[in-house]
Specification:
Structural class: alpha+beta
Low-confidence stretches: none
Pfam families: DUF4166, Sacchrp_dh_NADP
Largest sheet: 10 strands, antiparallel, barrel
Distance between the termini: 64 Å
CATH topology of one domain: Lipocalin
CATH superfamily of one domain: Calycin beta-barrel core domain
Protein name: Saccharopine dehydrogenase protein
InterPro entries: DUF4166, NAD(P)-bd_dom_sf, Sacchrp_dh_NADP-bd
Organism: Rhizobium etli 8C-3
Strand order of the largest sheet: 17-18-19-20-21-22-23-25-26-27
Shape: elongated
C-alpha cells in the first residue's frame, strides 16, 4: 500500500454486501479499506481473513452515534454505506450530510424508494462542498437502468417496464435486507398502471417471469412480488408517456414466498400495522427453508414500439451461480472506486445513481464470476425465425457452423443422412419404454437419416435407423416453461435447456410432463446429450435413461446434407 492510498470507509464492511466490495478491492494497493461496523471484534475478524495488497483497517462505526465526530477521526476520501436498511431512515441523511460538511465523497447501496428520491435535497450543499453524493448504486436503480439504457436503443417509444431480482435461496441475505422488505410488506405502494397513478401492495401484487440469459440454463419460473424500489419513481421521470412500471423480488422456495404474501395480507387488511416486529422470524425462516438450486438472477423487460413504429419487446437477463450473486449489487461501487483511483470523478452534486454507469462497467465485474447475462428481443421479424434461433437468441451466433446449419430450418425443413451406432438398455422397463417410443435396436454402423419439417412454430423430427423409424415434435415452451425446448414423444413432454458449450450444443433436462401433468424432476429421463462439430461435420450423441430404468437407449453418429 502506498502512502497516498485512497482511504475508503465501508460502513457494514463485514456484512453481506460490504464484505463482497472489500473482496473486490483488496488486491489493489492503491486502496486503504476501512472495514467499519458496530462490532469492532467482527471487523477485526474479517480484516484478518482478508488477503490482498490493499491496506486494511478494522474500525468501530455506529451510524446512530456522532457521525460527524467519527468521520472527522477517520478522514476517508470516500464513504460507502453498505449497511441499511435505508427504508427505516426516512429523510434522515445523517451520514451523507456529515460527509458533505467534511468534504468527503459518498455513495450507498440504498434500495429505498423514499431515501433515493429525497437525496436530491442535498444537491446544492454537495455542489457547494465540491463532493458527489450517489444514492442507489445497487441492483435497483443503478444496474436496472444500465440494462434499460441498452435495451432502449432499439425503441422509439417505451410503454411498459418491469424488472426484478431473484436471490438464491442459499444466499447470505442479512437481517437488514429482510427488515427492509418487512417495512413495506402489505402496505400501499404507489405505482403507474395503464398510464395512471395507482396503488399496489408490497409482496402481494405479482408477475411471473422466467429469467433466462441466452445460451444459459434458465432459472425456474418464479413469481416476482412487488417491492417498493426507487425505479417506480425514476422510470416515469425518464420516459415520457410510460404506461406501467413494476419492480419485484422472487423469494425461494415458493412456500416461503407464499407464507410472506399471506402474512403481508394481514397488513393489507390492517390486522397488523407492519411486519417489522416479525422481521427476525422472517430472517430465520429464510435460513430454515433454504432449499432448491443455489442460483439467483435478475431481469429487465421492456415493451413498446421499434424505430419503425412496430411492436417490440426486449429483455435483459442475468443468472449468477452459487455464492456469486451478492457480488452483483456492489459491482457499481467497484466501478466507482476504480474510476476515482484513475483520477476520474463523477460530477459533484447529490442524486440517484440511475444512469451513472453503462452496463459495460457492470459486465467487467461479472466476468470474474459465474455470472452470465444477455438480451432477448421479440419483434415482428422474430416471430418467423427457426425454432432454435428463437430459443437461443443472441447465443445463436456462438454456434459452430455445422450445428447452426443443421438447425436452420428457415426454408421449411431439410433432410440429413449419415451413420450411427445404437446401444440399448437391457432392463425390462427400459425395453418396454424403448419399444413404445420406437427407439432403434442395438446395432453398429447403421445408416441413419433425419428429416426436419417445420409446421408453424414447431418442428417435426422424423428419424430413420436402417429402416426403423421414430419421430418427435419440438417446440418452444411457454408459461412456466418459457425459454425451454419442449420435445413431445406421444403423451410425454421433455423440457430441456439448450446451452452452447464451446464446440458443443448441450441439452439439459429441466422438467417433464405426462398429458400436461408435471412429474418429479428426479425421475425424469436424462443423460449426456449433445451435438458437436468435428472437422466441419455435424455429430450427435443422445443418451436416454433414468433412475428407475437405467439406460434406455444411447445412439451417436454423424449427419450431413444429402449429396455432400
Amino acid at each position: 500500500m502506498s502512502d497516498a492510498a485512497l482511504r475508503i470507509l465501508i460502513i457494514g464492511g463485514y456484512g453481506t454486501f460490504g464484505a463482497r466490495l472489500a473482496q473486490l478491492l483488496c488486491d489493489d494497493e492503491r486502496f486503504c479499506l476501512l472495514i467499519a461496523g458496530r462490532s469492532l471484534a467482527k471487523a477485526v475478524a474479517f480484516v484478518t481473513s482478508l488477503g490482498g495488497k490493499a491496506g486494511k483497517e478494522p474500525v468501530e462505526f455506529d451510524r446512530n452515534g456522532d457521525v460527524y465526530k467519527q468521520l472527522s477521526a477517520l478522514r476517508p476520501a470516500v464513504t460507502v454505506d453498505a449497511s441499511g436498511p435505508f427504508q427505516t431512515m426516512g429523510d434522515s441523511f445523517r451520514v451523507p450530510r456529515a460527509c458533505i460538511s467534511l468534504g468527503i465523497d459518498y455513495a450507498d447501496l440504498a434500495d429505498s424508494r423514499e431515501f433515493v428520491r429525497k437525496i436530491a435535497a442535498l444537491d446544492a450543499e454537495a455542489r457547494a462542498a465540491r463532493v458527489f453524493v450517489l444514492s442507489g448504486l445497487s441492483s435497483f436503480p443503478a444496474l436496472s437502468f444500465a440494462a434499460l439504457d441498452r435495451l432502449a436503443q432499439d425503441f422509439s417509444r417505451i410503454d411498459h417496464v418491469s424488472s426484478g431480482i431473484a436471490p438464491s435461496p442459499h444466499a447470505d441475505v442479512g437481517p437488514n435486507v429482510v427488515q427492509a422488505i418487512a417495512s413495506y410488506a402489505g402496505k400501499p405502494v404507489p405505482i403507474l398502471r395503464n398510464g395512471r397513478s395507482a396503488t399496489g401492495h408490497g409482496l402481494i401484487d405479482w408477475h411471473r417471469v422466467t429469467v433466462a440469459p441466452p445460451g444459459c440454463i434458465p432459472l425456474k419460473s418464479r413469481c416476482f412480488r412487488l417491492v417498493d424500489a426507487p425505479d417506480l419513481d425514476l422510470l416515469p421521470q425518464r420516459f415520457e408517456g410510460l404506461c406501467s412500471v413494476f419492480t419485484g423480488a422472487a423469494t425461494t422456495p415458493q412456500i416461503l414466498q407464499r407464507l410472506l404474501a399471506a402474512t403481508a395480507q394481514l397488513v393489507r387488511i390492517k390486522l397488523l400495522s407492519s411486519l417489522l416486529a416479525i422481521a427476525p422470524l422472517m430472517h430465520r425462516a429464510s435460513k430454515l427453508l433454504a432449499t432448491g438450486e443455489h442460483r439467483g438472477g435478475m431481469f429487465v423487460h421492456v415493451s413498446g414500439a421499434d424505430r419503425g413504429g412496430k411492436p417490440l419487446e426486449a429483455s435483459w437477463h442475468l443468472v449468477a451461480e452459487g455464492d456469486d450473486g451478492p457480488f452483483i449489487p456492489v459491482a457499481g461501487l467497484e466501478a466507482l472506486i476504480r474510476k476515482l483511483a484513475n483520477g476520474n470523478r463523477p460530477a459533484d452534486g447529490a442524486r440517484s445513481a440511475d444512469g451513472e454507469f453503462p452496463l459495460q462497467a457492470f459486465e467487467r465485474c461479472f466476468k470474474r464470476f459465474a455470472i452470465q447475462s444477455g438480451t432477448r428481443q421479440v419483434g415482428p421479424a422474430d416471430v418467423d425465425l427457426p425454432l432454435y434461433r428463437r430459443l437461443l437468441g443472441s447465443a445463436w451466433e456462438r454456434l459452430p457452423r455445422a450445428i447452426a446449419a443443421t438447425h436452420d430450418t428457415s426454408e421449411g425443413g431439410h433432410k440429413l443422412s449419415g451413420r450411427a451406432s445404437v446401444e440399448r438398455g437391457t432392463g425390462l422397463l427400459a425395453s418396454i419404454i424403448a419399444a413404445a417410443v420406437g427407439f432403434p435396436k442395438a446395432q453398429d454402423d447403421v445408416a441413419v437419416s433425419v428429416c426436419f419439417t417445420t409446421k408453424g412454430r414447431t418442428e417435426l423430427w422424423t428419424r430413420d435407423f436402417g429402416g426403423a423409424g421414430f419421430g418427435s415434435v419440438q417446440l418452444e415452451g411457454n408459461g412456466r416453461d418459457a425459454h425451454l425446448l419442449a420435445e413431445d414423444f406421444g403423451p410425454f413432454r421433455i423440457l430441456m435447456a439448450v446451452v452452447p458449450d464451446g464446440a458443443k450444443l448441450r441439452f439439459i433436462v429441466r422438467g417433464w410432463r405426462f398429458f400436461g401433468i408435471p412429474l418429479p424432476l428426479v425421475l425424469a429421463p436424462r443423460g449426456d446429450t449433445y451435438e458437436e462439430e468435428r472437422e466441419g461435420r455435424f455429430h450427435f450423441h443422445v443418451e436416454v435413461g433414468g433412475p428407475l430404468t437405467g439406460l434406455i437407449v444411447s445412439y451417436a453418429g454423424w449427419l450431413e446434407k444429402d449429396g455432400v
